Amino acid sequence: xxxxWFVFFEHVLGKDxxxxxxxxxxxxxxxxSHSAYSQTPxxxxxxxxxxxxxxxxNSQQKILVxxxxxxxxxxxxxxxxxxxxxxxxxxxxxxxLGWDVSDEKGIKxxxxxxxxxxxxxxxxxxxxxxxxxxxxxKKIGLTKSLILDISSAIDPKSAEWAKLKPPLRLPFPLVxxxxxxxxxxxxxxxxxxxxxxxxxxxxxxxxxxxxxxxxPMLSEDEAALxxxxxxxxxxxxxxxRFKVHYFKTSEIMKRYIGTRYGFYALESTSQEIIRxxxxxxxxxxxxxxxxxxxxxxISLDRVKFTDYTPGHEEGSEILKYARSFIEKTRxxxxxxxxxxxxx
Length: 343
Fold this sequence. Notes:
- The structure is a single chain.
- The protein has 343 residues and is α+β, with helices and mostly antiparallel strands.
- It has ten helices and nine strands.
- Among the domains are: 50-150, Immunoglobulins (Immunoglobulin-like, Sandwich), CATH 2.60.40.10; 220-342, no CATH class.
- Helix content is 46%, strand content 16%.
- The strands form two sheets. It has a seven-stranded mixed β-sheet with strand order 3-7-8-1-2-5-4.
């Protein structure tokens, strides 16, 4: 690939061409083209006229930072209807030089162009040469640069530290002193009262009044009948809790029998209770009351300790038999008292 360009020129210019002569040919072409380009006429930038820039107002007064300066450019063509100031791109901006041009368009009055600007720095400020443009944006001239001495707007005397004065002594209000003293006396009196009350309470004996309501003593039959009434009001059979109904009935009966006949029947089995009844001859052996009592205990155990499900009527019969048993076996003294109360 590196030899093909040489073979092309050897074919065009002849076979006797060498690499040295080929390089000389290229150098000659480059030099001729450069000389031809340098001899072509280039556009020459015309020189722009420079116009004088002077103060239109306050030219003799001291200039401070922040003052609005009125300047005018003199000698512009009368036929120029409008002019605009513009900065040179090569120079620093007006803000960097310490100027704020508030009216760059200005006003055209005859051959003068008036505009305003504000110095924003102190010291010697240079207003650079500005480009003057017509209404079409074409350059028509330049302004002369100005060097102005700008003073600071802050008075040097006002920047000095003021002398420190001693603090003023304010009179303390007498009313506040009186109120503060009264408040202290009230607080002291309250503290003394609390201490005396605490010492008195400490010396008094600690007595606690307890109101105890003593319920009247009930006999075993009255307590058993009340318990059966409360059990019936719970309606456990209607709720399907028949086992609880039978266990509570058996407990009420055992507590009554144990209290009535003087032995511990609450934890006794049905057979143990029957043996106690035979031993104490509570019920006549072979009588109908003895047989009914045995059947009653067996019916209770059947529901308590098996999966047998009784009906609602059986549950009611259990409570009915318990009431009749208690009424038949209750103490005779209770019966006599009831008769006396009835009379």
